[in-house]
Design a protein that fits this description.
Elements: H1 7-18, H2 32-38, H3 40-49, H4 51-57, H5 70-77, H6 82-163, H7 165-177, H8 205-213, H9 217-228, E1 242-245, E2 248-253, E3 262-267, E4 270-274, E5 300-302, H10 308-311, H11 314-320, E6 325-328, H12 330-356, H13 367-375, E7 377-379, E8 385-388, E9 391-397, E10 405-411, E11 414-418, E12 444-448, H14 459-475, E13 479-483, H15 489-500, E14 506-508, H16 511-522, E15 537-539, H17 544-548, E16 552-556, H18 565-573, E17 580-583, H19 592-601, E18 606-611, E19 614-619, E20 623-626, H20 635-645, E21 649-653, H21 657-669, E22 680-681, E23 685-688
Parallel strand pairs: 4-5, 5-6, 6-7, 11-12, 12-21, 13-16, 13-17, 14-15, 14-16, 17-20
Antiparallel strand pairs: 1-23, 2-3, 2-22, 3-4, 8-9, 9-10, 10-11, 18-19
Helix pairs in contact: 1-2, 1-4, 3-6, 5-6, 6-12, 6-13, 7-9, 8-9, 11-13, 12-13, 12-16
Length: 695
């Protein structure tokens, strides 16, 4: 801003006048600027009338460095010649007018600049919003394309199954052998929240089918079994030779760790695997010691349930062994294709990224392997015995998730029971385990020990705590993000929200929404099908809902906050002080969920995430807590299972070594005989080499 050109001179005049005794003690004595402002014209008149005053000024004038233009003017105003002073005053007046004009113009320009700045900021904001919308749209398009690719893989695999006589016969045999009273063994064929009145037992399907075909039921079953497992047509030797058989068990993965589950079982020349899962991490890895099984042929892999840490490596095995049989319950057979397709997608994406950066990282399998694996699946209902070479299998309900099974493996008089992941309490989508007579007093019980060191609160207590916490956040106008495992946990949470908080809007996003549709399709033909989406539960519409869904619950993958839509939601919800993020299940130590918990407990202000190769800092203002709804039996539940089976020996797998050791001591105190987690051999027995096992 331009200064008054007369001001230095008037200040000097004021100082001279204020120094006179007549003005001593006046109100302006110590405030020259105020005196100049109040007596400006008087000071100009004095300057013009009193040459003596001007003479005194010539020695007192001090020109500020920022007003060098005032120097010549001051020389004119302090002149002894009155005409020169008048000329100086006229010049000062002209300079003042010019200064005011410049000031007006400057203000006008500043206003224009401010308007342009506001318009520029608005344009920049619109541009940023457009870029964000473009990124979101691209992400949504990418998600849609990936979902279409996954569905394409699943459809192609199902079409191959329909063209394969082996798998078609296996599915038909499973349907005919399924219990008509309680399909699938009873644990997840009905809505567990609805008490059903007893009804007269229906006629078995196999009897109806045999009657329609005009043959005996046994003949129909035998014919289908011959297609599923063709009999050995090699001529029997003239001399009957006996050989020694012995059930042998060897954990190959998920033994003293959680994930990558795999158990090798052998009897004579028969070799089968129970589970073949992926170890969590980036990249996902096969079962730790799977190479020990690949030294020879494998007749079948029995999958206990569709979680990828138990089934995720199966397509790689099928690709290597095209005749491998994949055996699971009907529900698990229907759920595995989506899990395999998702794994193939993630591994393919990682492989492409590594190739772009010149790094190694081959995918364990791709979509074509998924199609072959789906084609090789055989559905075996609970309680139905199936012969594989020298061993017989029987699946039983294990609780945990839809379709989960434990396995009884028998060779001669020896029996091994493998629980898989197991639970005894009733959930929203599945009842607890049901130990069959075939499992009791077995030679070996191979039991999971995920939660062997924990005593869980009653499930109803944990559900009530979660419902109360969600209600508190919703009442405060916030959002709740619950990262959840796509298979099992997400559906449990959605049903809890639907039944306990029907006034709270709930969104299902990512793979959790896709698997929910599978749950509804699998149970659609049952007397009380599961209905999850509807009423207050809806499928998310990204990217719009990321910002438009401002209050309610979001349930999405991944459960460990390692990627997927959960990261996009977390980036928006974590900065909101009235919102919350509730983790609901097991968190691997290296997972994003475990890291977030540590940061929140330590009072950190930000969370750093990798957003498409760029580090992004997210403020941590939301409430972050663990609200665990475990689907595994705890210490008490596992003790009940061991007591109910009463096996001759017990082996612990799928757990943390230190906790396994402590739990083993408790089992020993309760008179259970423990065997180390490693190779196990049953008592040998004899079998004729030319004998042919029957179903």
């Amino acid at each position: 801003m331009t200064s008054d050109p007369l001001l230095p001179v008037l200040r000097a005049v004021a100082e001279v006048l204020l120094s006179r005794p007549a003005l001593a003690g006046r109100e302006h004595e110590h405030d020259v600027d105020q005196f100049v402002a109040a007596r400006r014209q008087m000071l100009i008149d004095a300057l013009l009338r009193f040459p003596g005053l001007r003479a005194r000024l010539r020695g007192k004038l001090r020109i500020p460095r920022d007003q060098p233009e005032s120097g010549p003017l001051a020389a004119l105003l302090s002149s002894a010649d009155d005409d020169v002073v008048r000329t100086g005053l006229r010049l000062a007046e002209q300079l003042d007018r010019m200064s005011r004009l410049q000031q007006t113009r400057l203000q006008r320009h500043q206003k224009k600049i401010e308007k342009l700045r506001v318009r520029l900021e608005r344009a920049n904001g619109q541009n940023r919003h457009a870029v964000a919308e473009l990124r979101s749209t691209r992400a949504a398009l990418g998600d849609t394309q990936k979902r279409a690719e996954e569905l394409g893989v699943q459809v192609s695999a199902l079409q191959r199954r329909l063209r394969d006589p082996h798998t078609t016969a296996a599915s038909l045999l499973a349907a005919l052998q399924q219990s008509p009273d309680v399909p699938e063994g009873g644990s997840e064929t009905r809505d567990p929240r609805i008490q059903q009145a007893p009804t007269a037992p229906p006629i078995p399907l196999v009897a109806l089918a045999a009657k329609a075909a005009g043959i005996e039921p046994e003949t129909l079953v035998t014919a289908l079994q011959a297609i599923v497992s063709p009999p050995d047509i090699t001529p029997a030797p003239r001399v009957t030779v006996t050989r020694e058989l012995q059930l042998r068990v060897l954990p190959l993965g998920g033994a003293t760790e959680i994930g990558g589950s795999c158990v090798l079982i052998e009897a004579g020349g028969t070799r089968l695997l129970v589970d073949a899962g992926l170890r969590p991490g980036d990249p996902a890895q096969p079962p730790r010691d799977i190479d020990q099984a690949l030294t020879g042929p494998i007749d079948a892999v029995v999958v206990t349930h569709a979680h990828t840490d138990h089934c995720g490596y199966v397509p790689a095995l099928v690709e290597r062994m095209p005749r491998l049989r994949v055996i699971a319950t009907p529900a698990t057979v229907q759920l595995m294709p989506a899990m395999w397709a998702d794994s193939a997608k993630l591994m393919g994406r990682r492989q492409r990224t590594h190739r772009e950066w010149g790094a190694s990282g081959e995918a364990l399998y791709q979509g074509d392997a998924v199609e072959v694996a789906v084609q090789r699946c055989e559905e075996v209902p609970y309680g139905v015995r199936r012969q594989i070479g020298n061993v017989t299998l029987e699946l039983f309900p294990a609780g945990h998730i839809l379709g989960a099974a434990g396995v009884v493996v028998q060779a001669g008089d020896q029996r091994v029971v493998i629980t898989g992941d197991i639970s005894g309490f009733r959930q929203e989508t599945v009842d607890g385990y049901e130990i069959p007579d075939a499992a009791r007093e077995a030679d070996l019980l191979v039991m999971e020990s995920t939660c062997c060191g924990e005593i869980h609160d009653p499930r109803e207590t944990r559900v009530t705590d979660l419902v109360r916490a969600v209600e508190d956040v919703y009442a405060a106008g916030g959002r709740v993000l619950i990262p959840a495992f796509a298979l099992g946990r997400a559906q449990e949470l959605a049903l809890i929200m639907r039944d306990r908080l029907s006034h709270v809007p709930v969104l299902l996003d990512g793979m959790a929404a896709d698997i929910t549709s599978s749950f509804e399709a699998i149970t659609a033909g049952r007397s009380s099908p599961l209905r999850i989406v509807g009423e207050n539960v809806a499928r998310a519409n990204r990217p719009d809902d990321l910002d438009q869904f401002t209050s309610g619950v979001v349930i999405t993958t991944s459960g460990m906050l390692t990627g997927g839509p959960a990261v996009q939601w977390a980036a928006r919800i974590l900065p909101e002080a009235n919102s919350a993020l509730f983790l609901s299940g097991y968190q691997d130590e290296e997972s994003g969920g475990a890291r977030l918990l540590r940061l929140a407990e330590g009072g950190a202000s930000h969370l750093s995430i990798d957003d498409h190769g760029m580090e992004r800092r997210i403020p941590l203002r939301a409430r972050v807590e663990m609200m665990r709804l475990s689907a595994h039996a705890d210490k008490r539940g596992l003790l009940e299972i061991a007591d109910e089976v009463t096996a001759r020996q017990v082996m612990l797998v799928h757990g943390v070594p230190s906790r396994q050791r402590d739990f083993a001591r408790i089992l020993e105190i309760r008179h259970h005989h423990m065997t180390t987690t490693g190779p196990w051999h049953g008592s040998p027995f004899m079998v004729d080499s030319d004998s042919h096992p029957t179903f």
